[in-house]
Amino acid sequence: MNKDSRIISRGPFKGKRIEFAPTTGIDKLVEISEGFMIKVFGLAPRQYLISDESSLCDFTGLDETELPNIHKKIKKMYNIDVSDIKSGNLLEIFKRISDSKSRA
Fold it and tell me: CB–CB of 58/70 below 8 Å?
């Protein structure tokens, strides 16, 4: 069995496999991801779980009107616009932050 998959042993999902999304991209940008999570969401390391497939929506309320506020906060903190990343994928956002830092 893969270390990133588990089989549920009991309950209504008994026998079903849980697979965790990869974190290889996030792992390459740990410093950026940790800083971002603190600055934007106020979450310290080990207070959250993110993968390469995580998005802004995973950390906002169910009310979609919060996303524009998050976009504004990112613009203020990092001087980049991420509103064009429709998926809100955190890895894409972290890559954009990394690119903007390397150009500075």
Answer: no
